[in-house]
Amino acid sequence: LAVLLVVASPAVPLVPRPVVAGLLFYLALGYVLEGVVEARKMLTTQEYQITWFMLAMWLPLGFEMSMLFGAVLNGAHFILRYSSSLVVSFVGTAREQGLLSNKSRLEEERKQALEVSERIIVAKSNCSHLFFGSTAVLLDRVEARRAQVPKPNAVVLDL
Question: Which among 72, 85, 155, 159 would be 20 to 30 A from 29, CA to CA?
């Protein structure tokens, strides 16, 4: 590519301006079609509306301002969508979750393992990134469950 640019750069002034304008318009139209029309299959309705808003703002405000508005709108959309999602899917004991040892044990050891599993609280979160609000919800659910479990030994967070 670098060789092509060096070798072909003296020939650029020889290409008529309408041809260069047509090529640039063709490239721009291709990007618009790819980003707006073909992206419809992958985007939610709100994301698609933001994309059209960015495209509509491009002509009157310019490229930079439309990208800035798009970034702000996408950030707000992410925050609203993430904050309304379910944070905790399960809070209970290890026994309720079925997290028991599958090691072959004596009957007495098995009873002891069952007793211990009743005192281990397991909390499964749907959030891969915990923020202040989602952490508070998770801790509230764990605290409520901890009050129901006599003498809990441990809390396991499954993120």
Answer: 72
Model confidence pLDDT, tens digit, residues 56-68: 898 899 889 999 9
How many other CB atoms are there within 10 angstroms of residue 84's CB atom?
7
Tokens encoding 150: 């006599």
- Give the residue from 96, 98, 158, 92 showing the smallest Cα distance to 128: 158
From start to end of the chain, where are the E strands?
A: 88-93, 120-125, 154-158
pTM tops 0.70, yes or no:
no
CB distance 141 to 123 below 8 Å: yes
Spell out the residues 6+ positions from residue 119 whose beta carbon is closer than 8 angstroms to its own.
93, 149, 150, 151, 152, 153, 154
